[in-house]
Amino acid sequence: MWSRLLLTLSFVAFLSPPAFVQEPVFRNFGVEEGLPSSEVYHVFQDSRGFIWFGTDMGVSRYDGAEFQNFDLEDGLTDNTVFEIYEDHRGRIWFLTLTLELAYYQKGTITPYAHNDKIREITGTTRRVYQKSSFTVDSSGSLYLAIKTTGLYRIDSAGRVKKLDNTSSKDMEAFEIEDRLLIPKTSSIHTVHDDLILHSNGIRRHYRTDSFPKKPIHRAYGLKRGRRKLIYFDRHLLEFKGTDIQGFRRHGEVVWLGSDQNDRIWLGTTKGAVVYERFTLKAKTKRYLKDFTVSSVLQDHEGGVWFTTLHNGVFYAPNFQIETYTTGEGLASGTIEELASDSGGGIWLGYSEPRVGRLKDNRFIHYSVPHRAGQPGIACMYYDHYRKRLWLGRWERLFYLDLNKSHGRVKSSPGQKQLKSIYAKGKEYWLGATQDLLHYDGDKRVYSSVASHQFSHQTEALYHKSDTLFVGTLEGLWAYAGEQYHHLGGENDLLYHRITNIEPGGGGLLLGTRGAGLLIRKGGEIYQITQQEGLISNSIKTITTWDDFIWLATNRGISRVKLKDLEKGDYEVFNLSKYNGLPSPEINDIEVRDSFLYVASNEGLTCFNMKRVGPNSYAPRVYVKNIKVNQQDTVIKNTYHLEPDQNFLTLQYKGLSYRQTGHLKYQYRMLGLDSSWQETRRRVKSFTTLPPGHYIFQVKASNEDGIWSRQPLTLEFFIAKPYWQTWWFISLMVVGVSGLVWGLVHYRIRMIKRRRQLIQNINEYKQKMLRQQMNPHFIFNTLNSIQYFLLDDDTSSSLTYLSKFAKLMRIVLDNSQQTFISIEEEIRGLRLYLELEALRFEDSFDYDIIIDEDINTFEYKIPALLLQPYVENSIRHGLLHKKGRGYLKVSMTKGEDCLLCMIEDNGIGRKKANEIKMNQGAFQQSLGSKITEDRMDILNSLYNNEIDIKYVDLQDERGDATGTRVEITLPFVF
Asked: Which residues, 6+ apart, have CB-to-CB distance to 531 below 8 Å?
């Protein structure tokens, strides 16, 4: 059946007369969107970024999300507003049907102070003014051109002067700073043979009677530096310097203006005409030809606004992006596939069984063999080698032979349910839902199912060297050497569904369904996703141009420029419906020269890739409303609030007209937090703010991530309650301080008196204890002298007596002081030990060891501290020892103390106590008791801890080998 189905080209050449003109995507605003009327006369953008519309039902201000409408009740002199203008002081002026003016400033519309002068000039008969008919100069003077009366100047004091003459044959034009005003005072049936131009006090005369003219009652002027355009009598004249550069005839022109790209715009009864440069020699285009366009504006973002007299406002977000629809020659609105041929044409595969070719703005369409109810083109590929357009449909493969000017759409060997086509030379590969086929010419030479049982839905093919890369639902395969190898082993990302394969970026570019863009380069896999800026992670088609990678997705188009993949350095720019695409769902893209063609369900879009880029305009933010404690308040920059006015609600809006209400914002409240917080909400509340100084800042980002250059800033000063004011606090501080000072002073006096009394008592006790030490020591010493005399040992008695005299002198000196140096204490202790050694006939040895780090002359200790413990060691430890005894006195320096140790090798404390009990003399040593009392007094007196520890020394069997006394003294004496 299919072999008999050869359909001749049912080619219906839909050629436009002489060619189709595509238009940008427009958004239409009318009464339902918030305009007060569909009859709109003028559009204007002020210096803050707001868009204003003059209508027959008042004036409207648009912020990208809402219209704010003003009428007579708000201060206008009439509801019909023909023209809007901003002066040097930022006042927005409105000219109404009554020829009376009003201006908007700081949220209020105020009638012009000298409207009464205008009423005197016009009298009872008021004819419609000329467009671009008034201006306000830097001195505040108003210049007003009235159609049948002339040009008048009204200065700030209300003085009136007429500036033009009244000759019916002359057309006059006046340069007033940056404006060109043309009063038209003659009859509407009169043509003008002369033009008089007034510039900086110079009057120039031009003869125009050689131009074939027809009378018309409108005249407009446009000034751009030294260049000027004047429209009158159905002619548009171009001036440069002192010469007329040229003229063009035009029909009914209702508005004349220019934009920031130096283009000339004419509003006419049959749409808007644009000259692509500021010269009448430039090419022209016509837009919205079915509407009467009353004015045109290009806003700060590059979008273009058109007002119409019956159909509201049209807005094109990007005039560089234009679209063909069925009205411009498409056979159908839905285009699935695109391809470019060698002859400069773009091929379109429709959702119905039809293809079309676009070249030089002309369309030729071809029908493809099909059965009733079957879908359109599933895949399409232009074979540059054979000059064939391959057409894949679900049921079969077809081709269009372009070597013949009137060729046929023929069927070709292939497989049903085709998904992808790739041709190289005379060979081509077909990817189907269950097979991969290879043809050499018209002969099938390979089937993946038959040869390798490889049965996968093939969505993308690319051949490089000896390897065929196959994109499937299960990821990326490589077919080489008669074997299939899944490349997921290189990286798990290659298991994602591959929708497109293209060379680029120094390797392979892989489009995926859900994993964004993958780049296989040098054995590495790099990934770019929405997190890195892509508009979507589901990519349908990839194409490259220059250094850019263009990606078609289900949400729009992403443009990627790679810089340094290893460092993750690349730029991403996105195009969506906000930027001028007719639909966010893109089916295919194709490059021809420097133009990108875009297939969608809403037609064929194309644009010059050199002229489309990120929106560099940084949106400004304005305050819509401020509430204090849930109550609306006047909007201003600085607020001084009472302590209980601490609940703030701030409503703000970024001025952007492409993304309307979808901007991102960053805000912070200095005084609470200095870090920026990101949000998409346009309102922020702060509750229970404490008293203080706060600065609220907010900025907005456009669709390409450009943030406001300067944040909107509002200051809030919340006063403190009286009990937190400086004078109240000072008064309370002085009062409380006086009271506290009195109490503290009284308490200190009482404490000092008590401490002095305790100190006197303790010092008295200390002296008493020291005095008790003297007789105790003398008593023990005299006992020793008595022992020598009774033994008739005169020599020893004399020696002992001599040493005793020295010791007594030292003891008497030291007993007069509470603290003495270590040197003085050791000197007395050494004499005492010598005496005791003589007394006990050298039955023990002793050593006094002082750490070298201790300055014995600098450090002080309590007087007569060590002698009682040395005495105990001798009398109770060494006296009863069998064999020779040994006593060691040592001092070492710790981190914050002195450690004194008295160690003997006597019988130990347990044995000594037993001897005392057997002798019936069990009582504590008097010297030790006095010393311990002294330690308690010193500890309480100086708030320090003198620590005394007794250590019983034992051998391995547990037998006593002596006693050690450890005394810890802090460095405070």
From this structure: none
Give yes or no: residues 811 and 947 share one domain.
Answer: yes
**Angle (CA) 594 597 600, round 5°:** 160
Residue 840, classified by CB atoms within 10 Å of its CB into exposed (0-12), middle (13-18) or buried (19+), is: middle
The predicted structure's pLDDT at residue 6: 29
Phi-psi region of 802 (alpha: psi -120 to 50; beta: other; left: phi over 0): alpha
Look at the chain and count its residues: 973
Structure tokens at 861: 């200790």
- Tell me if 621 sits within 8 A of 712, measured CB to CB: yes
3 state DSSP class of 454: coil
In a domain, residue 135? The reply is no
- pLDDT at residue 828, rounded to an integer: 86
- Using 50 as the pLDDT threshold, list the residues of the chain that sit under it: 1-19, 769, 771, 773, 922
Per the DSSP assignment, residues forming a β-bridge with 440 are: 427, 443
φ, ψ at 858 (rounded to 5°):
-90, -45
176: which residues sit within 8 A by CB, 6+ positions away?
135, 137, 143
Residue 570, domain member (yes or no): yes
pLDDT value, residue 155: 94
Say if strands 517-521 and 507-512 run parallel, antiparallel, or are unpaired: antiparallel
If one counts every other C-beta atom within 10 angstroms of the C-beta of residue 683, the result is 13
- Give the C-alpha separation, 40 to 37, whole Å: 7
**Count of domains for the chain:** 3
Number of other residues whose CB lies within 10 A of the CB of residue 252 = 12
Q: Is residue 393 part of a domain?
A: no
For 817-926, where are the E strands, in sequence order? 819-821, 844-850, 860-862, 885-893, 897-904
Q: Are 446 and 437 in contact (CB under 8 A)?
A: yes
- The residues with which 891 forms a beta bridge, in sequence order, are 850, 900
Q: Are 208 and 192 in contact (CB under 8 A)?
A: yes
* Cα dist from 220 to 181, 211, 252, 253, 267, whole Å: 7, 18, 12, 9, 11
- The three-point CA angle 829-835-840 to 5° equals 125
Residues 711 and 783 in one domain: no
Query: Is the Cα dihedral 866, 870, 875, 877 positive or negative?
Result: positive
pLDDT at position 972 is: 62
Q: How many whole angstroms separate alpha carbon 963 and alpha carbon 610?
A: 102
Taking phi first (over 0 means left), then psi (-120 to 50 degrees means alpha), and beta for anything else, what does residue 907 get?
alpha
Tokens of 798: 């004399």
Determine the pLDDT at residue 504: 93
Q: How far is CA 821 from the centre of its chain?
A: 72
Domain-terminating residue out of 580, 613, 646? 613
> What does the alpha-carbon distance between residue 514 and residue 491 come to, in Å, rounded to a whole number?
16
Residues 516 and 602 grouped into a single domain? yes
Report CA torsion sign: 340, 343, 345, 350: negative
**Cα separation, 832 vs 853, whole angstroms:** 25
Residues with Cβ within 8 Å of 525's Cβ and at least 6 positions away in sequence, in order, are 490, 491, 493, 494, 518, 519
Amino acid at 630: Q
Encode burial over 529-567: b for 16+ CB neighbours within 10 A, e otherwise.
eeeebbbbbbbbbbbebeebbbbbbebbbbbbebeebee
Count CB neighbours of 235 within 10 A: 20
pTM: 0.73
For residue 456, give both structure tokens: 């996968």
pLDDT, position 13: 30
Handedness of CA 521, 522, 523, 524 (dihedral sign): negative
Same domain, 772 and 909: yes
User: pLDDT value at position 912?
Assistant: 83
Taking the C-alpha atoms of residue 231 and residue 256, their distance in angstroms, rounded to an integer, is 8
HEC states along 901-957?
A: EEEECCCHHHHHHHHHHHHCCCCCCHHHHHHHHHHHHHHHHHCCCCEEEEEEEECCC
